[in-house]
Amino acid sequence: MRSVRAKAAIGATLVVAIALITAGLGVLLVLRQNLEGKINLQAEIAAREVASQFALDTPTDKLVLPSAEDRPVQVVGENRQVIAVSPDLQSIEGTSSRSVRPVPLPSPSTEQDDEPERQGDESERDPSGASSGDPSEGPENGSVNDPENGPDQDTDSATDTDTDADNDTDADADSDSDADTDSDDPARGQVSGSEKLSDGSATVDGDSAPYRFAAVEATNSSGTTVTVFGGVPRATEQEAVESVRDAMLIGLPALLVVVGAVTWLVTRRALRPVEDIRAEMAAITASEDLSRRVPEPDSHDEIARLARTTNETLAALEASVERQRRFVADASHELRSPIASLRTQLEVGEAHPDLLDVSGAVADTVRLQQLAADLLLLARLDAGERPGRARLDLGAMVREEASQRTNDRIAVTVDVVDGLDVVGSRSQLARVLGNLLDNAQRHADESVTAAVRADGDRIVLTVADDGEGIPELERERIFERFVRLDDARTRGEGGAGLGLAIARDVAERHGGTLTVRQGPQGGALFEVSLPGAPGAGGEDQAPQ
After folding, report:
1. What 3-state class would DSSP assign to 182?
2. Is there a contact between 297 and 274 (Cβ–Cβ < 8 Å)?
3. Tens-of-pLDDT digits for all 544 residues of the chain?
4. Cα distance between residue 377 and residue 372, in whole Å
5. Is the sign of the CA dihedral 505, 506, 512, 518 positive or negative?
6. Closest C-alpha to 240, from 497, 35, 382, 97
7. Which end of the chain is more exposed for a tag (fewer CB within 10 A), N or C?
8. Left if phi > 0, otherwise alpha if psi is -120 to 50, otherwise beta: which for 53?
9. Taking the chain, what is the end-to-end CA distance rounded to the nearest angstrom?
10. Computed over its alpha carbons, how large is the radius of gyration of the chain?
11. By C-alpha distance, which of 339, 382, 367 is closest to 501?
12. Number of H helices, E strands in the chain
């Protein structure tokens, strides 16, 4: 697990496994729903085919029922008794029937045919029990109507009429009751538009299997309502789902093995250049030879950019180390010269007090002091020391610093505007101004000018002289440490080559820049550009 290859292979395998399991479950769910919809439709079709036959007054013993093995059908009456079943259907579960043994219903056509006969028999009988005859025979035989029997006959007729009316009322009440009870039943000669689905099982020829049933109601012309159950076997659906599930269970582990192996190999090949880079870096660390470089692959991917960046880092590190070595060597050289001179003067003064050069010793001591201060400031800047955040008037600072330079070879001309504030360390900015003025004093012929002006949201400090100026090719080199355009480092030439390097470092630490170009009088013009202080600020900090 500590290997990137192993982590990548395991991670890819887990991600693919989760994705495949999720997709497989989705496929099984969709497949099951589709198959469920198909068998529901088939069961409904089977039930409606038989229900349509019954609605068209087909006798129950004449109904065309499908095979029980493919689509078992059961017709159930209002009393939950089975009226008709498919051939070879032995038992069924999941319907509302009490048995599978059919009970035939009377045919609607037979009932209608028997009605006229019954009506004919009743019409031949006389209400009084005598045989009916020709009404004209009565007068010819001499029979007359008895006046006493007339009212009786009228009473009987009225009684019969009242009885018929009561019966009609009862019949209407019964029909209304039936209508209320069977309000959900389809109309006569119609099949219900909705169906009810349920699961069950059926036994055909001794074999029991699960089935899906659809229940549809139908009413014939005589008003008899039945429920037709049409079934479809679920074996096909279950076999399809199980086949897909088994294929996934077999294929998923094999696919995961392939994914893990491919990820391992691809990751191993991709990380091979990284291992080469690591090995070369280990060799560079062991040998301390910063001139060596790591191999860069020909690809243009992240690893190639990593190798390129590593080589750039090594180059920067090599330059930094080389600069540090040169700095130490130059600092040692600069320190050795005044120390050796001071020691020589002290030894001569000890042996011959009258020959002691006190002024030279003091000059060497001051030079040592300035060099030590410069080295200390450079060390603090390299350590990342941040400047102070004091708000100060740059023009007033230039005027004050110039007034304190009383021993300069050439007087400094000041051209400043008051009220131009910057934020930073006063001591460090004063050090920048002092170094620029010292450099101008060494190379000027007759004039040195310090000016402060505003340039948009920037405050610009310029120091110009009328000397020979600086060649264009050397205008960046002079800002390097211990660099002087005169290679002979004599005491008469002044500084150790740290002043301009310190000035640029301090300017950059304050968010500004330091550049040099040719001045209006032909000499060098040093320009320090600093960001101006916000117009409205809090209380100023104490100057540093």
Report:
1. coil
2. no
3. 577 888 888 888 999 999 999 998 999 999 888 988 998 998 899 889 998 998 898 888 888 888 877 888 989 888 788 888 888 887 888 776 545 555 555 545 444 444 444 444 444 444 333 333 343 333 333 333 333 344 343 434 333 434 343 444 343 434 443 434 344 678 888 888 888 988 888 888 888 888 889 999 999 988 889 999 988 888 888 888 888 888 888 988 999 999 989 988 888 888 888 888 889 999 988 988 888 999 988 888 888 898 999 999 999 988 888 877 877 777 777 777 778 878 887 888 878 777 777 777 787 787 788 778 878 887 777 777 777 788 999 999 999 999 998 888 888 999 988 889 999 989 889 989 999 998 898 889 899 999 999 988 999 999 999 988 888 888 888 888 877 665 444 444 556 678 888 899 899 989 999 999 998 888 899 999 999 888 633 334 433 4
4. 9
5. negative
6. 35
7. N
8. alpha
9. 56
10. 59
11. 382
12. 10, 14
Alpha-carbon span 288 to 32, nearest angstrom: 69
Q: Which two tokens stand for residue 389?
A: 């955040």
Q: Which residues of 346-362 are buried (b: 16+ CB within 10 A; e: fewer)?
A: eeeeeeeeeebeeeebe
Whole-model pTM: value is 0.46
Written as one letter, the residue type at 117 is E
Residue with tokens 């080589």: 311
For tokens 């139908």, the residue is 218
Cross-strand bridge partners of residue 226: 218
Instruction: Tell me the CA distances in angstroms from 434 to 398, 416, 431, one per residue in order.
Output: 10, 16, 5
